């Protein structure tokens, strides 16, 4: 009995040491840099297969897989302008294994009344690309500059018909941002996508479109269209001679973008690993080649910078969209 009592402190110490060792091992295996990832990752695209978002996400997934050394599977979860897929990721375990393709619409869908989810529910770890809006008119139109176009719109409220790819789309919002810039007023004409809007412009049924440069390039090359401005951070690589709105003294940036994020409570060290791997993937020749072929702008940004942009745009759209009267009632 005496021997047993004397050995109890030693046993107690051993138990404590073992517990501490086990705790450290568990912490390392669940969040340590040396272990993540240990299994397959899923990249959720909130749109249908075959579109711009899906195409970019799939080539990114292939390159991310090389960087991380684990499979990255792309799955499409569609509905409610992207809200269904983003809700799925938001509600998934915040461990880095479920990633969202984050479009610019992630900063708009709450203001549109489609969901309570916002981009603030996620931790961004990279941006891959942007697609600027282009303000395009027919070649024989009387406007030759963006300033002339906006001055006319202000002097004649509602007279200029501007086509877009659908109510609440980024191209619709792009035109609305131009209105806001100088208190002008267009009549917005929504279509089921950018191509029908461009066809309507070609046919003389509307006066202008705000869509992507790639959607109007054929008309520009064929002499039917002229682009008054692109609304990107930089000039478009496929119509490089066209000045941005900012270069013309009009402080408007309106563009689609494609980014990647995980649920906001994902451990910081996991986000850092994803960010480093994404930087390598996005800067790969394969991703850059695809973006160039599709007329998208290579626009890599790390997580913190993308997060700041998303927060700013979330506030901007929360203010703008209700004024347009296009939000769905919840």
Polypeptide structure, described:
This protein is an alpha/beta fold and 330 residues long. It has two domains: 159 residues, 3-Layer(aba) Sandwich (D-Maltodextrin-Binding Protein, domain 2), CATH 3.40.190.150; 115 residues, Periplasmic binding protein-like II (D-Maltodextrin-Binding Protein, domain 2, 3-Layer(aba) Sandwich). Helix content is 43%, strand content 20%. The chain contains ten helices and eleven strands. The protein has a six-stranded mixed sheet, with helices on both faces. About 7% of the residues have low confidence.
* Number of DSSP E strands: 11
Mean pLDDT: 90
- CATH architecture annotation name of the largest domain: 3-Layer(aba) Sandwich
Are there runs of 5+ residues with pLDDT below 50, and where? 11-32
Defining traits:
2 domains; BUG; D-Maltodextrin-Binding Protein, domain 2; 5-stranded mixed β-sheet; 6-stranded mixed β-sheet; 330 residues; ABC transporter substrate-binding protein
Helix-strand blueprint:
Layout: H1 2-31, E1 41-45, H2 52-68, E2 72-76, H3 83-90, E3 98-103, E4 122-132, E5 134-138, H4 146-155, E6 161-164, H5 170-182, E7 187-190, H6 194-202, E8 208-211, H7 213-221, E9 225-230, E10 255-263, H8 268-282, H9 285-294, E11 297-302, H10 303-324
Parallel strand pairs: 1-2, 1-3, 6-7, 6-8
Antiparallel strand pairs: 3-10, 4-10, 4-11, 5-8, 5-9
Helix pairs in contact: 2-8, 2-9
